[in-house]
Specification:
By secondary structure, the chain is an alpha+beta fold. Strand 10 and strand 11 form a beta hairpin. A 10-stranded mixed β-sheet has the order 7-6-5-4-8-1-9-13-2-14, with helices on both faces. About 50% of the residues are buried. About 10% of the residues have low confidence. The chain is built from 12 helices and 29 strands.
Length: about 650
């Protein structure tokens, strides 16, 4: 079902309600008919208190019995970074209690990195099918052609909100307010302080974006997200809500309030792991604060509460199943600790620990079985499961996930026994079947990377040390041969064919380049940042993390601030929505920084034309006004002292493009 059709449905429902109100002599403000405006930002901070939703209140009353939904997703917290998974070091008493009260999916899988997991979670599709396979280079933008969970729930009368990390596009039409969220309070990019984020952010006393507009928030980032979520769920409830709390923690750089770090340093842990664990303990306390709010407001019984993580751990105390020197130091102090819950693999890897994550669901009114289920499940099952639990159907027939309601409520779902799940790491410009990929089926894990093929029995070999294809005459590029005697080769052939068929279908559908729209009133001017440069040559890094740091010790996290000379200006892909006059401003550092460029000239290339302009004194930007034609094109900008050759001396890391009219 496309989005325009959804708007028509809502318009029809609203029209019927207006007619009903007229018949019953209920006053209605026709100018504020409550018609959903998917794809545009709402003007109010909390649209449930807005007079523009007077009519929507009539819809809310009819949906009041539908359960609220709270979905918490942490960032880079692996399967072993939580107390109840064989980790006696980390302090997560509230999450441990939640696990005892909840239904747990103990064989639940996601993508190995951030954006792909979020795309699959919100669309019910494999991340590659959703067009998201990287976290930078424009390969993380979720296209508007996909129906998101937020849009599905809006069609079912829900108020929708996101708090924290979006990481599926920072420009129209890829932002959360363009993709079904009524309220959006987020940082930019894939982490606080990344290039799309507000200049100078460090996770403490930062500027974040409320429905696209910058706003200062005091305090620690994790608390900001929970504060905003709690404020949202405490509002008068006439309409069910979906609160998507997507945390930036514990993604690096590891930062937490001092008292949360010192408690682990006092246990003899290094500052690095102490801060990582401190971030998670802080999350643990905030989860309980949120749950306490649900209890006090009488919402807990009728709220679907989910806690999960987005990929494997970014903290790696083991390598190839063996303790690293830093892991060995921890193990000597805590002999009962089982690193990574006994699995091999971390963030970015297709071994088990890179994608097998905790998943807890608690819903008292749903009569869920309070037990652990080890059936093979995945992130793209969440969308159809939630829609099934609220009594609705999925509008998109192309999803890959299945509803897990039978498993959760009846304790069994035979159809899951023979399913396959494919996990891949496609952190490249264009997807390739040669990239690391794992096919999961039953207890088997078939893994390929380039010419290498491996097969593991995950129940017997959770550390994936014994490759069952070792020494066998198996080549995954050979055609299947059913006459072979080896049972392991037969299993590998079947799983390899699943992989080949899966990728062939995706490749046939194609992998899209994403273009940032300019000239649309939803975002004018459009702010472009260097994390979205395209056509990055091999050997040049992508400037994705700026590098601002608080006054606290930490390891030297990757950054581009102070290392700008490593980067050459590259093109952004833009879609000029309408022909006309455009003002383009090129900045060395982002606008709030006010950093002088300190060159004589700037050059801006739009399509096949290059424009030059003077840089005056200590100006932080240069400006040109051009006539641009509608359509997809490339734009790039740089600074130079050579007006003849226009040599690339400094890259413009930010570009603002504003439509001025015809």
């Amino acid at each position: 079902m496309n989005k325009n059709h959804n708007k028509f449905k809502i318009w029809m429902i609203t029209s019927l309600l207006v007619c009903l109100a007229a018949c019953l002599n209920i006053p209605v403000n026709a100018a504020n008919s409550g018609v959903a405006n998917s794809g545009t930002a709402h003007s109010g901070v909390d649209s449930r208190n807005s007079s523009a939703n007077n009519n929507a209140a009539h819809i809310r009353k009819s949906n009041v019995q539908k359960p609220n939904i709270v979905l918490i997703v942490t960032d880079d917290q692996g399967i072993g970074d939580i107390g109840f998974n064989q980790n006696p070091i980390i302090k997560t008493p509230n999450l441990d209690k939640l696990a005892q009260q909840s239904t747990a999916l103990t064989n639940f899988h996601v993508d190995p990195t951030c954006s792909p997991t979020r795309a699959a979670l919100l669309t019910g599709k494999h991340s590659l099918k959703a067009g998201v396979w990287h976290t930078i280079l424009g390969r993380y933008m979720l296209g508007p052609e996909h129906q998101t969970l937020a849009e599905e729930l809006k069609d079912n009368g829900y108020q929708t909100a996101i708090f924290g990390k979006w990481h599926l596009g920072d420009n129209y039409p890829y932002r959360p307010q363009d993709q079904g969220f009524d309220l959006s309070v987020i940082h930019g990019g894939g982490g606080v302080g990344q290039t799309p984020d507000y200049w100078g952010n460090t996770q403490f006393d930062d500027v974040y974006y409320r429905n696209g507009k910058p706003e200062f928030f005091s305090g620690y980032a994790t608390k900001v997200w929970f504060d905003e979520a709690i404020n949202f769920i405490q509002q008068p409830q006439e309409q069910p809500y979906f609160a998507y709390i997507a945390l930036n923690a514990p993604h690096g750089p590891y930062r937490a309030p001092t008292e949360y770090v010192s408690q682990y340093e006092d246990m003899g842990l290094s500052n690095e792991v102490a801060t990582f664990y401190g971030m998670i303990t802080y999350i643990d306390e905030q989860v309980e604060r949120l749950r306490e709010t649900l209890r006090k407001t009488g919402q807990e019984e009728n709220t679907i509460f989910i806690y999960m993580t987005d990929n494997g751990s970014s903290y790696r105390p083991t390598h190839s199943g063996k303790l690293t020197p830093r892991g060995q130091k921890i193990a000597e102090k805590f002999p009962n600790w089982v690193p990574n819950n006994g699995y091999s693999g971390y963030k970015g890897q297709v071994y088990e620990g890179g994608h097998r994550v905790p998943f807890l669901i608690y819903y008292p009114n749903g009569n869920l079985k309070k037990q652990n289920f080890n059936q093979l499940t995945a992130h793209y099952d969440v969308l159809p499961t939630l829609l099934d639990l609220i009594g609705s159907n999925v509008s998109d027939s192309e999803i890959d996930g299945v509803s897990l309601k039978p498993l959760l409520t009846q304790g069994q779902q035979p159809a899951l026994k023979n399913r396959s799940v494919v996990v891949t790491n496609q952190r490249v410009y264009d997807p390739s079947i040669k990239r690391p990929t794992a096919v999961l089926k039953g207890p088997w894990r078939y893994i390929t990377s380039g010419q290498k093929a491996e097969l593991y029995h995950i129940e017997k070999d959770p550390l994936q040390k014994q490759n069952l294809l070792q020494g066998l005459n198996f080549n995954h590029e050979d055609k299947p041969n059913l006459q072979v005697e080896s049972e392991m080769i037969k299993i590998a052939q079947q799983m390899n064919q699943t992989r080949v068929n899966w990728f062939a279908a995706l490749a046939q559908a194609g992998f899209k380049d994403r273009f940032i729209n300019v000239g649309n009133p939803a975002e004018n001017p459009a702010r472009l940042n260097a994390m979205d440069w395209m056509e990055v040559p091999k050997g040049q890094p992508v400037p994705w993390f700026i590098g601002h740091q608080p006054a606290a010790p930490e390891y030297d996290y990757v950054h581009w601030l102070g290392e700008e000379d490593k980067y050459t200006a590259l093109p952004w892909y833009i879609n000029v929505e309408q022909s006309g006059r455009y003002r383009i401003r090129a900045y060395y550092h982002d606008k709030p920084a006010g950093t002088p460029i300190n060159t004589q000239y700037c050059a801006i290339k739009l399509g096949d034309k290059t424009y030059t302009e003077n840089v005056y004194g200590r100006a932080s930007y240069c400006e040109i006004v051009v006539d641009a034609q509608a359509g997809q094109q490339k734009v790039s900008a740089w600074f130079t002292n050579d007006r003849v050759q226009l040599t690339h001396e400094k890259a413009a890391f930010y570009l603002y493009i504003e439509y001025l009219g015809h």
